[in-house]
Inverse folding.
């Protein structure tokens, strides 16, 4: 087999690359070692039931967001999504729950009511997070336009989130910790400030539920790849890169023994 591009791995990243290239007329083939595409977000079955392996909260579906931009190039419709309001709620031992979502002023009211012992510090923490997240987004969307932000982001990436919580109460710190442990799988003393900013500022910009779960997104990208003439091979582990006699890479070797150029 010969193709212009070989994509290894059928997670969301690999599927998106393959679908976009195929839609642009590139001869592309994607190899996935599992029996279905989706990677770590693929649904799994247990004792006859199907489970979605994520929290079910997704970002980037706003008008003009990354998903709209991607699907504008593809020959298939995007999954059906629903904006969540609130995005989610955090329940504290001594407080019924704290709704987490925009608009910002309403969320600020919720924070002041839930944390009367440090109302201004709690609101300030989130506002600074939002500013950092916006800077990160601009830097990664238009890197040449925002080169001056790069050094600031590098400095903040070295900070832990806990270093920015010193003016807040233990209750508020627990409120932050439970969110970081849920979404980033680490507590504030080990989570970088940049990572926390991206995670915790997301409800400001909106969070969505995908009808059918994130597997639907993988299925749509798979459908697009095939519709555009691309190839998808499941149960096809890639063993290694293949090289010519001069040492230049020319393709991949599959575990089955087949070489793809």
């Amino acid at each position: 087999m010969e193709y212009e591009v070989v994509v290894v791995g059928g997670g969301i990243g690999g599927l998106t690359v393959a679908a976009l290239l195929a839609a642009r007329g590139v001869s592309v083939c994607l190899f996935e070692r599992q029996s279905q595409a989706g990677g770590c977000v693929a649904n799994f079955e247990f004792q006859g039931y199907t489970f979605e392996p994520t929290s079910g909260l997704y970002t980037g579906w706003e008008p003009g967001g990354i998903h709209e931009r991607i699907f504008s190039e593809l020959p298939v419709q995007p999954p059906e999504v629903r904006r969540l309001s609130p995005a989610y709620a955090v329940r504290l031992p001594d407080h019924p729950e704290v709704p987490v979502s925009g608009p910002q002023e309403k969320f600020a009211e919720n924070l002041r009511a839930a944390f009367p012992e440090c109302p201004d510090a709690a609101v300030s923490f989130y506002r600074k997070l939002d500013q950092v997240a916006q800077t990160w987004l601009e830097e990664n969307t238009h890197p040449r336009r925002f080169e001056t932000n790069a050094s600031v982001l590098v400095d903040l990436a070295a900070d832990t989130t806990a270093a920015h919580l010193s003016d807040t109460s233990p209750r508020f710190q627990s409120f932050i910790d439970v969110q970081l442990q849920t979404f980033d799988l680490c507590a504030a003393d080990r989570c970088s400030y940049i990572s926390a900013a991206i995670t915790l500022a997301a409800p400001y910009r909106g969070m969505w539920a995908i009808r059918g779960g994130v597997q639907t997104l993988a299925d749509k990208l798979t459908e697009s790849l095939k519709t555009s003439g691309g190839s998808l091979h499941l149960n096809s582990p890639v063993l290694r890169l293949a090289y010519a006699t001069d040492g230049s890479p020319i393709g991949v070797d599959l575990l089955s023994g087949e070489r793809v150029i």
Notes: The chain has nine helices and twelve strands. The mean pLDDT is 90. The radius of gyration is 22 Å. The CA atoms of residues 80 and 165 lie 38 Å apart.
